[in-house]
């Protein structure tokens, strides 16, 4: 799930979980002998807040409260704090400093867009961090062993892969067109998908990764796609722009067999009649099991969001995933550290690095935290569910099975 943004730069956190203060040594006399403070670093204001915000904090809180209520970590009670990451790498650093110096956070959930501006400090101080890792390449670098990607450490070479092209063919697709912004990660993602489709034998007559957000002429692009004869379109854009493109394609009389839209799965899509209408029939990638499948893992998450975040709508918000999955990974690491009887920063990092198969309670394909660069961009645990929008539902196109992604050795698009 990588959508790098072009921003950059790092200062202070506690070096151990077993230190003083609220860190990890407070006796509470009840459910546990230690209190460990987890800090959420996420944009609460500014343009990026619409993709994260308070719902991200709410979801992290729900996962942490679930862990406390079910005594998942023996002898430990979790406490949640949060800081506004703001609008830039510089504000991310300032917020990280506040989490350290004022909030005394022991583990950081980098559930935002600008952590590449502060990760160097986290590495310098050996701060345990669990990130969404959509902002930069830091999670895939073995020089940063204290930084974990909740969905798997991404391969920064952006290789070609199998899985998605086969899905397109199963849907009846014959030609692929790829559209995306002119930024390093979206270009690399777009080229990787186009290269993957081409490697499968499907023609790719048109791609366009030459425009900035808000600058596309979708009517002109739709005409180019029509002239190219594509019946499969993949986008590397914000959901609103993707929907604008598909509306332009419909207006141009283009009939599509399959689509690929990243980041569209979420209740927000149905909050306006306009977006609901524009999304009809569009295939959305979902990195975790769609709520409509009602699997045990889905039920557990939705019940926790209802109980602790007061979320009662049919689907999670797209913003919820960042808080839920980073917090869930932190809980996994703390359970392993507690089992090894060492919940210091060093113990947490060591224990989580030994976890080789974490499916987030049955919500994703297994993630391996012991290695670096083994996960393909955008695909948690090298898998993605594909769900089509029908009415106000996301209907899984592959039942309860995810599309499995496998890298093609020797290829590179980064």
Textual characterization of the structure:
It is built from 11 helices and 15 strands. By secondary structure, the protein is α/β, with parallel strands linked by helices. It folds into 2 domains: 34-156 and 296-378, Rossmann fold, CATH 3.40.50; 161-291 and 382-407, Response regulator (Rossmann fold), CATH 3.40.50. Helix 1 (53-69) packs across helix 9, helix 1 runs parallel beside helix 10 and helix 6 crosses helix 7 (239-251). Residues 1-32 have low confidence and may be disordered.
Strand content: 15-25%
Q: What level of helicity do the residues show?
A: 25-40%
CATH fold-type name of the largest domain: Rossmann fold
Which structural class matches the secondary elements? alpha/beta
CATH C-level class of the largest domain is: Alpha Beta
User: In CATH, what is the homologous superfamily of the largest domain?
Assistant: Response regulator
CATH architecture of the largest domain: 3-Layer(aba) Sandwich
Rg of Cα set = 21 Å
Return residue spans where pLDDT drops below 50 for at least 5 consecutive residues.
1-32
Strand-and-helix sequence, N→C? EHEHEHEEEHEHEHEHEHEHHHEEEE
Work out the count of structural domains.
Answer: 2
Major beta-sheet overview: 8 strands, mixed
Q: What spatial form do the alpha-carbon principal axes imply?
A: globular
Average pLDDT metric:
90
Distance from first to last alpha carbon: 15 Å
- The number of strands is 15
> Helix count, per DSSP?
11
């Amino acid at each position: 799930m990588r959508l790098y943004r072009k921003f950059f730069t790092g200062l202070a956190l506690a070096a151990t979980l077993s230190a003083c203060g609220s860190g990890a040594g407070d006796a509470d006399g009840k459910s546990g002998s230690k209190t460990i403070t987890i800090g959420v670093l996420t944009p609460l204001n500014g343009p990026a807040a619409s993709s994260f915000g308070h719902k991200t904090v709410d979801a992290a809180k729900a996962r942490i409260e679930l862990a406390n209520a079910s005594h998942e970590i023996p002898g430990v009670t979790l406490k949640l704090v949060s800081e506004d990451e703001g609008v830039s790498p510089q504000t991310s650093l300032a917020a990280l400093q506040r989490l350290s110096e004022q909030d005394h956070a022991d583990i950081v959930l980098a559930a935002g867009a600008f952590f590449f501006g502060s990760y160097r400090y986290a590495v310098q101080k050996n701060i345990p961090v669990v990130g969404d890792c959509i902002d930069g390449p830091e999670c895939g670098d073995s020089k940063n062993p204290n930084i974990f990607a909740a969905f798997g450490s991404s391969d920064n070479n952006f290789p070609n892969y199998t899985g998605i092209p086969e899905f397109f063919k199963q849907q009846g697709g014959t030609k692929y067109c790829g559209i995306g912004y002119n930024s390093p990660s979206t270009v690399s993602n777009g080229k990787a998908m186009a290269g993957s489709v081409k490697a499968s034998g499907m023609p790719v007559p048109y791609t366009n990764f030459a425009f900035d957000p808000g600058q596309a002429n979708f009517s002109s692009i739709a005409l180019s796609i029509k002239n190219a004869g594509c019946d499969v379109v993949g986008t590397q854009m914000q959901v609103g722009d993707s929907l604008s493109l598909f509306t332009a394609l419909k207006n141009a009389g283009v009939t599509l067999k399959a689509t690929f839209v990243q980041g569209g799965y979420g209740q927000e899509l149905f909050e306006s009649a306009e977006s609901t209408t524009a999304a009809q029939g569009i295939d959305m990638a979902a990195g975790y099991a769609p709520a409509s499948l009602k699997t045990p893992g889905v039920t557990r998450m939705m019940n926790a969001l209802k109980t602790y975040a007061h979320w009662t709508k049919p689907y999670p918000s797209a913003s919820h995933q960042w808080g839920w999955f980073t917090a869930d990974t932190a809980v996994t690491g703390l359970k392993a550290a507690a089992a090894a009887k060492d919940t210091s920063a060093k113990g947490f990092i060591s224990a989580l690095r030994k976890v080789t198969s974490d499916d987030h309670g049955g919500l994703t394909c297994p993630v391996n935290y012991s290695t670096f660069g083994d996960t393909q961009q955008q695909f948690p645990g090298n898998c993605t569910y594909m769900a089509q929008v029908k009415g106000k539902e996301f209907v899984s196109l592959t039942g309860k099975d995810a599309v499995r992604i496998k890298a093609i050795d020797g290829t590179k698009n980064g």
